[in-house]
Amino acid sequence: xxxxxxxxxxxxxxxxxxxxxxxxxxxxxxxxxxxxxxxxxxxxxxxxxxxxxxxxxxxxxxxxxxxxxxxxxxxxxxxxxxxxxxxxxxxxxxxxxxxxxxxxxxxxxxxxxxxxxxxxxxxxxxxxxxxxxxxxxxxxxxxxxxxxxxxxxxxxxxxxxxxxxxxxxxxxxxxxxxxxxxxxxxxxxxxxxxxxxxxxxxxxxxxxxxx
Length: 211
Ligand code: DGP
Fold this sequence. Notes:
- It is globular, with a radius of gyration of 17 Å.
- The chain has nine helices and five strands; from the N terminus they run βαβαααβααβααβα.
- By secondary structure, the chain is α/β, with parallel strands linked by helices.
- It has helices spanning 20-33, 49-58, 66-78, 81-89, 100-108, 114-118, 137-142, 154-170, 184-202, and strands spanning 9-14, 38-42, 93-97, 129-134, 175-179.
- It has one domain: 3-Layer(aba) Sandwich (Rossmann fold), CATH 3.40.50.300.
- The two termini are 29 Å apart.
- Bound molecules: 2'-deoxyguanosine-5'-monophosphate.
- 2'-deoxyguanosine-5'-monophosphate binds next to α3 and α5.
């Protein structure tokens, strides 16, 4: 990419085990193979001190009120915003596993108010595209092998999926929904063609903020 062009902020969202990690990796590899500057990121980013608290919470070694952990997840995104901005302006595309929408979906699924959950996300850099891997109801109920982490329960994931659906219908302009149950290769092909078009489209656009 030539000087002066920025990278794209591309987010993968969806329930646990919806295939985000595989699809982000495939997109990363494809863009790298085309010599496009690209970096992976994921939230929560567990290595910072805030990230370590989040990790203790997720692995059930620490309990915190729902509101407190919500704000910690948000703070974890805020503490990385300067780095995100700098990388994008250097022309690097970021492929990010989860962002503000997971923040809203997982907390609203616990019963916290939707608008309250969204408030601390306002002002973060707005993604150029969100690829939402939507798990089918069958997929959610048939997944018996969820892991040990706090949120990996079928019933809870169903509620998370409902909030993602709600956000997807509100934020339609930059959200792209995919059926997560299709073969990974097919899904990748669809995602890749949209991603490449987005890279071209946003290269000369200023960064925007979530509002
Ligand atoms: P992952 O590292 O992508 O497997 O995410 C770990 C878990 O944390 C997963 O169950 C989703 C959840 N999660 C991710 N981001 C947030 C957030 O901002 N808020 C809440 N409450 N949960 C989140």
